[in-house]
Write a structure and sequence with these properties.
mainly beta; five-stranded mixed β-sheet; five-stranded antiparallel β-sheet; 22 strands; about 45% strand
């Protein structure tokens, strides 16, 4: 019987695998034994798919995928699946239009997220807006995709929309940065009445003294509404003599004021250890971008990019991961304050 309640729809056909006997028993998250679920050269003209987001749709599953073309330029491709594990991808990039129906394609697009709010699906990604910035689009049928004005000026990335309005406003996480491979970064939360005008920016979390997130952090999957607050899977980055290492962390945010962190796990939930996380185009990366979760069972499937080369799948339950985060929580003043100065 689940004690932590996921607030949302039932998804009984979501992918699931019980914890394998050889998983790290002290951690609440375990890997799918058949990882990676998306390998190299997955579609025509695409060398690698990673850092992608999926969602239940029409009794099956649909997703937006970072497709690294063979010429090295990333774009977003649409994929469909009956089981959320085996995917078929459109050959052409998602055809973004402006509000008048004219072609409006970004110069490049990567690390998309996909979130449903009310009856509309929103796609967020990183793009060029005279520097690294956030792109936005909306769809209701996954046939037409209308771009929305860029929410922020450069430099910013890692946009993650909350799956419902809070106090009547859209809320979105982002990570202000610079236009390079940023050696710093905190998570902020902003609000909007209409998905066009954004303000009331609040600081959410900074990097910490914990070794796995002591360089920078950034949003990951869309927050999951639970009886304990918003469950957030995010990425934390450390530096080594051989480059950055990206791990998956967890926190629980206040349900009505999400700039307030109630609990923040001092340990990672998953760090690169498997071959497909350690070895690839960019080694040592576990980068969460989406979850599928079932309110009835409390099960959670986490989709994450692996070494900028593959897509991996990991599992947990609301009970296990929330209990672990609370048990290992360490919060600071900048975590628990509203985030205004």
């Amino acid at each position: 019987m689940s004690h932590v309640k996921i607030i949302g729809p039932n998804v009984p056909n979501m992918p699931w695998q019980d914890r394998p006997a050889d998983s790290r028993q002290e951690l609440p998250v375990w890997r799918y034994s058949e990882n990676p679920i998306i390998g190299r050269n997955p579609a025509k003209g695409v060398a690698r798919i990673f850092n992608s987001a999926v969602i239940p749709y029409d009794g099956a599953f649909i997703g937006v995928f970072r497709g690294e073309q063979t010429n090295g330029i990333p774009y977003i491709y649409l994929g469909r699946s009956k089981d959320a594990i085996h995917w078929e991808f459109d050959e052409e990039k998602i055809p973004f239009k402006d509000e008048n129906g004219r072609d409006f394609m970004p110069r490049y697009a990567y690390d998309p997220r996909l979130v449903k709010v009310e009856d509309t699906y929103y796609i967020m990604w990183c793009q060029d807006f005279y520097g690294a910035s956030i792109g936005l689009a909306k769809t209701q049928d996954f046939k037409t995709f209308t771009r929305i004005e860029n929410p922020f000026i450069p430099f910013n990335r890692n946009a993650v929309l909350f799956p419902r309005k809070i106090n009547g406003k859209y809320r979105m996480l982002s990570r202000p940065s610079d236009s390079g491979h940023t050696p710093f970064g905190d998570i902020f939360v902003s609000e909007s009445p209409d998905m066009v005008y954004w303000g009331r920016h609040r600081h959410l979390m900074s990097n910490s003294g914990n070794w796995w997130e002591n360089v920078k952090i950034g949003g990951g999957a869309a927050p999951i509404e639970t009886s304990e607050g918003w469950l957030l899977f995010y990425h934390g980055v450390t530096g080594t003599c051989n480059g950055y290492v990206y791990s998956i962390g967890g926190a629980i945010l206040d349900i009505d004021e999400p700039s307030v962190v109630k609990y923040r796990c001092s340990t990672f939930l998953l760090t690169p250890e498997a071959w497909y996380e350690e070895r690839g185009f960019v080694p040592n990366v576990a980068f969460p971008c989406a979850t599928i979760h079932d309110a009835g069972s409390g099960r959670i499937a986490i989709y994450y990019g692996c070494a900028d080369t593959y897509v991996g799948l990991a599992f947990t339950t609301a009970d296990e991961v929330v209990s672990y985060i609370k048990e290992h929580s360490v919060v600071t003043e900048t975590d628990t304050e509203v985030g205004i100065r």
